[in-house]
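Two quick folds needed for the group meeting slides. Do the first one here.
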Amino acid sequence: MFYDHGYMAGMHLGWWLVWLVIGVGVFLVLRNSGTSRDASQGPTPPDTPMDILKRRLASGDITPEEFEQRAALLRKHPV
């Protein structure tokens, strides 16, 4: 009765389009949610040799004496 001569056929197509638009919108929001935080922070500058030396001291890779020797060398011959 309602589908006589195409009556309500447009409504069926309309709902499919509504769900399609909602699905695409959710996809775009989810895809961009992770990158927006990274893009707002900008690129991180590379570590300086002194930063690397401090990190190695903190992790225990080198002793404080080695740190002082290498830091003095870096201060004498900056990179």
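Then this one, please, same format:
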Amino acid sequence: MLKITNTLVKPYLKYKYKKLRYTSDHSLVTQHSQFSYLISQLAETSFGQKYGVKEDTDMKSFAQRIPLHHYDDLKPHIQRMMDGDANVLWPGRITMFSKSSGTTSDKSKFIPVSSENLYGNHIKGAWDTLSILYNNYPDVRIFAGKNLIIPGSVQPYPTNPDVIVGDISALMTYHMPMIGRPFFTPDIETALMEDFEAKINLMASKLLDEPIVMIGGVPTWNVVLFRKILKLTGKSNLLEVWPDLQAYIHGGVGFAPYRQQFERFIPKDDFIYQEVYNASEGYFATQDQAGDAGLLLLVNNGIYFEFIPIEQLEKEHPAAIPLEQVEKNNTYAIVISTNGGLWRYIVGDLVKFVSVHPYRIVIEGRTAQFINVFGEEVMVANTDKAIADTCRQTQARISNYSIAPIYFEPGQKGGHQWLVEFEVEPESIDDFALKLDQNLRKINSDYDAKRYKDMALQPLQLKAIPPGTFVRWLKHRGKLGAQAKVPRLSNDRKIMESILKFVEYNE
């Protein structure tokens, strides 16, 4: 039955791909259309009426009337929606909210998910990605087996049981139509278990005999599951467990540091890796060219995009520009207005355009995750590449890492401190640190300039921490879950000191 379905679904995916290509080739016209639709909805809300938005408000007036927003700016409006108020940020009542813990804050964010947003953005983005997969790899057979996802859980909101909250993967799983469930594993009850550790353990035992062909999700938690499965089976790699495994669709964190681990778990030369850019706030982009890191911006999925040039970020009132004004090879902070009710919302991600015909981006990092204490302007994309290159040079493998500055002290220079959790340690930690420093200098000219003759920055300091530390630290902080991520870079030492104290206590 599944094999027949795979054949039947191909014409639909071909149609989806053709439509995706048309909108990408006409990105600006498509964005104008999306803007018009969104403005017509905003005009029906109390938020839109507060700013004098009408159905005929144009892009220029929209940018002049409505300020840029961070989450805390919209939080009072979102709280009203969670309490049951209608027509606040989006017409009608919203009964779903995506819970995002983030990586730099102890507080949870609750992102409104309208039905238009769930189906017209998140689920549509997933179909767009599959249409690309089938176009680029015509022999792929994703609908001839099971697809493995590790979602979070959903719960009723305590003060309004008509509302449910959960991470976006859990909300998508919760609302999965019956027709889709035969292709999904584990079963819905297991997938939505609230106890994440118990869920991983139960999944490991349940998945051994499943015909899994595709895996999706954040690399960190997939690695944890893979290890448990190999331990249970005594197998050396996942192909011995799931011989028909064909593809991994990944997002959430940079994949470069994990690639070696995945190649060991799945030693298959033609195995497919496809990156997506999705978040609680929306499904923004997807890799559309095999072997090319650029992600195609999804311009027809209920989002109107604006971008803040990186040099504007430090200003009190940064200026955002529309898609038509972005330039290739420039880095921007992404701003979205969505069919979930986020208006001129600063997501917190930095992207660089690698193409403008069509619009393709790469993710540079988070606006809140960088190190620029000494003018070095180091971002996650730099450190991910540097540590991946160093692992290849030394045959090491890492599970996770985190970096913070070492401040100037009297008579001492500043620098960077790296905490690295190795899966396979190099022969020499000191040699690994030396090569890592050299690779980062090759990648980032600002860091290299500060490191010149150790004039401003001393060589990086690297501390190897015990396997499993980062996962235990996340659990200690109450952040164990499908969307929980280890903060890669911090511009202060708050997170670093928290991890170091946790390590010291457990030692």
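Slide caption for protein two: The longest helix spans residues 2-25.
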